[in-house]
Design a protein that fits this description.
The complex is a heterodimer of chains A (about 240) and B (about 325). Helices cover about 80% and strands about 0% of the residues of chain A. With about 240 residues, chain A is mostly helical. The longest helix of chain B is centred in the middle third of the chain and has 16 residues. The two termini of chain B are about 35 Å apart. The chains are: A mainly alpha (about 240), B alpha/beta (about 325).
Chain lengths: ~240, ~325
């Protein structure tokens, strides 16, 4: 009998999740295709001037699709029995959960870089003073809140297909209320906060505390609260009874 | 605690009693119960399974076999009762148990978008095996299961039989002290089934304790040192396959289908008047099973006695299925 190492287990599980994800073509199309549709629609349907206004929102839109990704991932693990199979090995449930979050964060990081490149190449305004770290960090922080929503959803649904369907009840309000490729209707949800902060950095090259720092704090609070709640509910849902 | 099975083995080896190794039980349960609301899935099971043995758990679908395995493999908490696995309490020391066991679930539990090799490696990695350890071992195991040429293919493209073999390999890669096989050959063709049986026997020879649940009586009979038969969450019989079959007496089993369903009790009564007929039972809607000494030679004599039109008849040696029929009046698959 050998002693298992939590850090190694986390790495191998994350790698497994990542491999499973990139080998499923439909998941790749969803992750990159959905935001790409908005780039094409706004750029060529509404013209460059309108597109420039909405470009920061489109970048924020990208990590929102992770809600269904994460919920689908855990629902599939539960549905197929692989979660239970893993539980019979000396790996803790928190390591399994963390590996799910980590693999989605890797996807989010790749997705955000690709989206920033695409909006840049398609003519969106990038201020010469725009802080590159913030350009990446703001949508990445929104990705955290998406994972929180995803975990909440994962604790409710039983199958991967129902996760995919129900995710729209979260994605669409976040998208339309938050002003992603539309006019924002509320200003306190992670998407509207993220789009406003990213717009300030991207278009105006701002680094001001208001709106950027203030919005980031609010998004972080959303992210922490959602992830904590998600972890509690998910752990309860997968508890050994 | 020394058990009759191991005592027999030591006697066979002509090992002096003072040299008998001290044997502990791999599993001990006391009044183990699992209730799901009104359903008593497991209803007070007491077992002692010695280390190194291959222990069969036989019963029909829904008898409580899988629930028992799930409790012992720490993925389900018992409603009441106690159980120790490899000396660890299933409720308080689950993590210690998980380091030492391998579980082959009844369902095909694989990662479809990983290759066969990656699926097996993942379990090895969770158990802390080094790359050097598991790489060679995985290839060796894949070779034994005739899967080496498909080792780098995604398992979602595998046939059901190939997936089942990968399912088995994922349970054994870390060479656990205790292995749970839950219906490991369900849906396999006879040739693949034989490969899995040989594989299971190999692991026992290496010293692992093996718990095998099945509703395949041939599997239970061929592989088990000792077995329990479970029905409705309770143990209804326990012993070696020969001991259990021996309870039915020395006779042959005659099984036949009759048209006169409502006269089956009378038919059985007429049959047991013959001094060489030991017992008879109604099974299912149309069938009657009779145990008769020297039954093969005396078929016509029995037929004359029971005076019934039958649609078919078979004569065979008794099996564990007949033990189950004798105990419950039902077939294992009913």
């Amino acid at each position: 009998m050998r002693e298992s190492n939590t850090a190694k287990q986390l790495w191998y599980l994350t790698l497994k999740n990542f491999k499973s994800m990139i080998r499923e073509r439909s998941q790749l199309i969803w992750i990159f295709g959905y935001p790409l549709v908005f780039i094409l629609l706004l750029r060529f349907g509404y013209g460059l001037e309108v597109y420039k206004l909405f470009a920061p929102g489109i970048v924020i839109l990208a990590p929102i699709v992770l809600i269904s990704q994460l919920a689908g991932h855990f629902a599939e693990e539960k549905e197929s029995g692989t979660l239970q199979r893993l539980i019979t090995t000396p790996v803790s449930r928190s390591t399994i959960l963390l590996s799910g979050l980590l693999s989605q964060l890797i996807v989010a990081a790749i997705q955000i870089v690709v989206m920033l490149l695409l909006v840049f190449l398609s003519g969106a305004t990038f201020n010469s003073n725009a802080n590159i770290f913030l350009l990446f960090f703001i949508p990445f922080l929104v990705a955290f809140t998406s994972l929180g929503f995803g975990l909440l959803l994962a604790s409710i649904v039983k199958t991967a297909s129902s996760a995919g369907g129900l995710a729209w009840f979260i994605i669409l309000p976040l998208q339309f209320l938050g002003g992603l490729a539309t006019v924002p209707l509320v200003d306190f949800i992670p998407t509207s906060l993220g789009a406003e902060a990213l717009g300030a950095v991207m278009i105006y090259g701002s680094t001001a505390f208001d709106p950027i720092g203030l919005n980031l704090i609010q998004i972080a609070i959303w992210g922490i609260a959602l992830i904590l709640l998600g972890i509690i509910l998910f752990q309860r849902k997968t508890a050994i009874l | 605690m020394k058990t009759p099975i191991l005592e027999k083995k030591y006697k066979k080896l002509k090992l002096k009693k003072k040299w008998w190794p001290k044997v502990e039980n791999a599993i001990e349960t006391q009044n183990l119960k699992k209730h799901f609301n009104e359903i008593h899935a497991v209803d007070g099971i007491d077992i002692q399974i010695p280390r190194g043995s291959l222990y069969g758990v036989l019963g029909p679908n829904g008898a409580g076999k899988t629930t028992t395995i799930r409790m012992l493999s720490t993925i389900l908490h018992p409603t009441s009762g106690d159980a120790e696995v490899l000396g660890f309490d299933i409720k308080k020391e689950a993590h210690e148990i998980r380091k030492r066991i391998g579980v082959c679930p009844q369902e095909l539990v694989l990662y479809p978008r990983l290759t066969a090799r990656e699926n097996i490696h993942l379990i090895a990695q969770m158990h802390g095996l080094t790359k050097k350890d598991y790489k060679e071992k995985t290839d060796d195991l894949l070779g034994k299961m005739n899967l080496l040429d498909r080792a780098n293919s995604l398992v979602k493209g595998f046939s059901g039989g190939m997936q089942r073999r990968v399912n088995v390999l994922m349970a054994v890669i870390h060479e656990p002290e205790l292995l749970f096989f839950d219906e490991p050959t369900a849906g396999l063709d006879p040739q693949s089934r034989r490969v899995v049986w040989d594989f299971i026997k190999d692991f026992q020879e290496k010293g692992s304790t093996i718990i095998l649940t099945t509703h395949n009586m041939e599997e239970a009979d061929d592989l088990s040192d000792e077995l329990i038969i479970i029905d409705h969450g309770k143990i209804i019989a326990q012993g070696t396959p020969d001991e259990l079959k021996g309870r039915l007496g020395e006779g042959d089993i005659l099984e036949f289908k009759v048209k006169e369903i409502d006269q089956r009790d009378e038919i059985i009564e007429r049959a047991i008047k013959l001094d060489f007929v030991q017992w008879g039972k109604s099974v299912g809607k149309h069938r009657i099973v009779i145990n008769a000494l020297d039954g093969l030679r005396r078929v016509s004599e029995i037929m004359d006695q029971i005076k019934v039109k039958m649609e078919d008849i078979s004569v065979r040696k008794n099996t564990l299925e007949d033990v189950f029929i004798d105990l419950t009046g039902r077939r294992l698959r009913d």
